[in-house]
Request: fold
Amino acid sequence: MKRIAVAALAYWAGGLALGFLLGPVRVLWVAPRLGEFAAVAAELPVMLAAGWGWARVVLGRAAVADARGAWLVGAGAFILLLTSECVLAAVLFGRSPDQWAADLLLPAGWLGLAGQLLWALLPGWAWRRGAPDRLG
Reply:
C-alpha cells in the first residue's frame, strides 16, 4: 500500500506542478481573449497528454504491482487534487469552499472537473496498456 500512496503523491504533484505552470497562462492570457470555457478546453489536451506520460513514469518507477493499485493511484491523486485546489482557492484567492464548489457548477468548471476525472483515470488506463516493465 505504501507504493500506491507514494505513486499517488507523485502523480498528484506532477499534475499540480503542471497546473501551476499552465494556470496563469490560461487565466491571464487565454481566457481574456477566448473566454473561460475555451481557455479550459485549450488547456485540457495538454494536461491530459502530460498526465498520460507522467502516469506511465510514476507507475513504472513505483513498481505498482497490479491494475487495482494503478486505479487507486489515480483515485488518491484525484482526492489530493480536489483537496489542494479547495485549499489553494481559500489561501491564494480568499474563496470559501462553498464558493470553490459553486465554480465547479459553471460550464468551465464542469469541463475542468471532467478533465480532472479523466486525468484520474489515466493511471488505470496506462496500466491496462502495458505492465510496469513496459511503462516509462
